[in-house]
Amino acid sequence: MSAFGILVVEDRDSLRRMLERALSGEGYRVMTAESAEVALELLGQEGIDLVLTDLKLPGQSGIELLRACRESRPDLPVVVLTAYGTVHTAVEAMKEGAADFLEKPVEIDDLFRLVASLAGEAFDETAFNVSGGPTIIGQHPKVRAAFKLLERVARTDSTVLLTGESGTGKELFARALHALSPRGEGPFVAVNCAAMPETLIENELFGHEKGAFTGAHRRQSGRFEVAKGGTLLLDEIGELPMAIQAKVLRVLEERTFERVGGSQTLRADVRLVAATNRKLATMVEEGGFREDLFYRLEVFPIELPPLRERRSDVRLLAQYLLDRIAQRQKIGRRQLTSSAVKLLESHPWPGNVRQLANVLERAMIVGDGPRLDAGEVRQLLSVSGGQSDRQRLCDALEEAAGDKRQAAEILGVSYRTLQRRIKEYDLGGFPEYRK
Q1: SS3 state at 303
Q2: Which residue, 313, 297, 383, is CA-closest to 353?
Q3: Is the pLDDT of residue 254 over 90?
Q4: Among 214-228, 352-366, 384-398, where is mean pLDDT lowest?
Q5: pLDDT average, residue stretch 288-304
Q6: CATH superfamily entry for domain 135-303
Q7: Which of 126, 286, 294, 305 has a beta carbon 3.0–4.6 Å from 309's, enabling a disulfide?
Q8: What fold characterizes domain 5-123?
Q9: Which residue blocks in 155-231 are alpha helix, DSSP H?
Q10: 268 by DSSP, 3-state: which?
């Protein structure tokens, strides 16, 4: 078998030769190019298994070369070299499909480890497993890119912003990030900002002193204290009131806060991870979110794709979820038929993985036998398959017997999102739809 072939694309002659010598010394077959144009000509040759490219090149950029590689050879891994500290550039490269990135000046040991990993990487891996953390299923390029970003940022203490629709797995990624980080032995604390009444959010986050308000009979620690030495996830951060946004901004800038009714300044020893299903940039433009807080949160954004954009993962996810449900409910394992898989893959899944899990759990409970076929799945999908969002909302409320929180779970959305939709569709006048 011929040696693993690497194409190094770097316009700086000294760095290009150094990389060539280092990689050749490890037994790799190395070709070099000083521009994207030359690299594209070489890509037509056989035996290139990996591209290592600078992002800043004369003529076409490294991002343009990356796109060309993804178009002509989508399975070819591309590693990009970025200037130190240019996190957003690296994030954009990962979104475009880069396998990984390295910061300049390049640490040779890091380079060797990365190339060795890619040279032996199995591209059919289906799960992202973290010791002490959750298992995340997926092999779609967008999911793999999110995995890579997660691994790189986990070793730092940077603030991370997880974006994506409800039900895409933002809390799973946050837990995996925590498990991979130096704070992994500390606590992981998750706060759903959309699930708390506005009057209680400040108290929940920062705690209170004895006597701070009626009923405050003793001092209570807030989530920033409880998460000391660990990670605090602020889920649905777009739902925070403006006054609380200012206090969170202070924590990020000064790492300090006070309990409600207190004067003692406390230090916040936490790694903050924020998650949202809303477009924070749009909220900033509309005056619903603080611009300064937005930029503090967006130090390292990771976008999670909706399930409809990763249909190739539906089969893997569905079978994994069925096995987990069978284990949890102590019922017999069921196997998906090919027709059931096709039906699941064709569904739009507005509630994403959370909705898929809910449908499969209901199918497991009402069904019999070792196989789950298309007929059983169709019965559960037929109500919502071709209906409007308003009708799906009505049906979910009916199925939940008017329980809004249960309806939100059925739809795979947050409680506050459900409330907004009820108001939008003028469904709030029905007394049977209770809180």
Answers
A1: strand
A2: 313
A3: yes
A4: 384-398
A5: 94
A6: P-loop containing nucleotide triphosphate hydrolases (3.40.50.300)
A7: 305
A8: Rossmann fold (3.40.50)
A9: 170-180, 198-206, 223-226
A10: coil
d(CA 245, CA 297): 11
Query: Which tokens sit at 351?
Result: 């509630």
What fold, for 307-385? Answer: Helicase, Ruva Protein; domain 3 (1.10.8)
Per DSSP, which regions of 179-255 are E strands? Answer: 188-192, 207-208, 220-221, 231-235
Neighbouring-strand partners of residue 24 = none
Q: What's residue 123's pLDDT?
A: 43
- If you search the block for the tokens 């994506």, which residue do you land on? 164
In sequence order, what are the residues at sequence separation of 6 or more whose Cβ sits closer than 8 angstroms to the Cβ of residue 370? 332, 333, 334, 335
Edge to edge, the sheet with strand 5-9 lists 29-33, 5-9, 50-54, 78-82, 100-103
Q: What percentage of residues in the chain have a pLDDT greater than 70?
A: 93
CA distance 76 to 46: 12
Q: How far is it, in rounded angstroms, from Cα 359 to Cα 209?
A: 45
Q: What pLDDT is stored for residue 414 in this prediction? A: 72
Collapsing DSSP to helix, strand or coil, 285 comes out as helix
Place of tokens 């009708």: 391
Q: What share of the chain is helix, strand, coil (3-state, %, to 5)?
A: 45, 15, 35
Question: In the prediction, which pLDDT does 125 show?
Answer: 59
The Cα–Cα gap between 98 and 139 comes to: 14
Q: What is the pLDDT of residues 391-401, one digit of tens each?
A: 777 878 877 77
Q: Calculate ∠ Cα 12-16-21, nearest 5°.
A: 155
Tokens describing residue 214? 């009626």
For residues 404 and 418, is the Cβ–Cβ distance under 8 A?
yes
Q: Same CATH topology for 5-123 and 307-385? A: no
Q: How many CB atoms lie within 10 A of CB 70?
A: 16
What's residue 413's pLDDT? 72
Query: CA neighbours within 13 Å on the CB side: how many for 365?
Result: 9
User: Is the pLDDT confidence value at 408 over 90?
Assistant: no
The tokens describing 259, both together, are 């309990």
Alpha-carbon separation of residue 409 from 380, 381, 403 (angstroms): 15, 16, 10
Of 73, 77, 71, the closest CA to residue 53 belongs to: 77
Residue with tokens 């959370």: 354
Tokens of 211: 């006597």
